[in-house]
Write a structure and sequence with these properties.
2 copies of one chain form a homodimer. The first copy, chain A, is mainly α and 178 residues long. Chain A has 2 domains: 3-105, Arc Repressor Mutant, subunit A, CATH 1.10.10; 115-173, no CATH class. Helices cover 49% and strands 12% of the residues of chain A. Chain A has helices spanning 3-26, 31-42, 50-57, 61-73, 95-107, 115-132; strands spanning 77-81, 89-93, 147-149, 154-157, 162-165. In chain A, the strands form 2 sheets. In chain A, strands 3-4-5 form a 3-stranded antiparallel sheet, with no helix packed on it. A two-stranded antiparallel sheet of chain A has the order 1-2. In chain A, a hairpin with a 4-residue loop joins β3 (147-149) and β4 (154-157). The two termini of chain A are 21 Å apart. The relative contact order of chain A is 0.13. Chain A binds a DNA duplex (30 and 30 nucleotides) through residues 25, 30-32, 49-51, 59-67, 69-70, 85-89.
Chain lengths: 178, 178
DNA sequence: GCATAAAGTTTAGAAACTATACTAATATTT
DNA sequence: AAATATTAGTATAGTTTCTAAACTTTATGC
């Protein structure tokens, strides 16, 4: 990897982590709780599970399971059994969690006048990265190989054969493939 | 902050963290050890201390102190007392640590054909971020307000009033200010 | 000189992470 | 149709890290 890029990536992640840690502690939360909440706030209906969280955060299932147990007790997350597949437990954020999250997001404000270029750059970096490491999904429907447009309001997911609303396009999907 | 940018930043940091965790465990190390090593490999002579590490990683001094104690026992880090200021303990990586680090870096290879633009974008983002949060330094001499060029091989640091070699310009400085 | 700040260490307790073993439901193979 | 393998999730024990608070030592400011 380009060496300077590596340094800045390192600094970016450190700073992000550091800010998150601060935000978490000022809200009386743990880092992981914030990470889980942030993920659940941007993932789609296929991806709101403990297993997906485990893959996204790179931690073991057991660890995630424990974290979720605590978060449920804190009133941040609710669990509900999936009727189609009885192994699966679907996760959802409570109102409290969403409120906490927006409070934290306000602390993370960054002034940057060149959003679009940077966003495109990072998206591209991630694409190469995930392909190189054969990492599972976590992208947006728009860029997915299974995405088939229908009209302005709907599109077809060729993987699940389901018709989805375009409003869900801005959510991360676990099954995403470039 | 731009919402999509936020999502990608989140994903980028998660993926980076996840990869680091994997790399660390495959080398028989802890995450923190890797983070410390990576920092020490890119920081300059003003910034190789426990305090700087604490600020960079956003952890308490005590935690860093403990981590360094372990790393010294593992033969990854050496400590030496600073003669000018007897409170300060200067840190250095051992050959072993550098070898481990390059082994890990090889695992982190990313294919990206647009380095320069992305690098510039991230640098800019960090600039805005650090200024907004009044975070301490951690930038390169080139972009520092205290940087005063002399000739091709040397420059003056107006903060410390020292003449420095340009070869150190690619190292992170704790005192950096835009 | 005296108070204050800065760099580090130490300790105790809380929290998270890993590894392993386990249950239950679904897919796949034979 | 039955056996096997895979996937989702939980539970437990042990290790490690992290924080917070109290403390030393050295340097700086008034």
């Amino acid at each position: 990897m380009n060496q300077e890029l590596n340094v800045w990536l390192e600094r970016l992640t450190s700073l992000y982590k550091s800010q998150m840690r601060q935000a978490a502690s000022s809200a009386g939360l743990q880092m992981v709780h914030l990470e889980v909440m942030q993920y659940l706030s941007v993932c789609n209906g296929y991806s709101n599970t403990a297993q997906a969280l485990s893959e996204y955060l790179g931690q073991t299932k057991g660890s995630i399971s424990q974290t979720l147990k605590v978060m449920e007790q804190l009133g941040l997350v609710t669990k509900s059994n999936c009727t189609r597949d009885k192994r699966i437990v679907r996760l959802a954020l409570t109102k409290l969690a969403r409120a906490q999250l927006t409070a934290v997001a306000e602390q993370l404000v960054v002034v940057d006048h060149n959003h679009e270029q940077l966003t495109a750059g990072i998206r591209n970096l991630l694409k190469g990265w995930q392909q190189h490491h054969e990492q599972p999904g976590f992208g947006l429907c728009q860029s997915c190989r299974y995405h088939q447009p229908m009209d302005e309001k709907q599109f077809l997911c060729q993987l699940t054969k389901e018709t989805l609303s375009t409003t869900g396009q801005l959510q991360l999907c676990r099954e995403h493939e470039f």
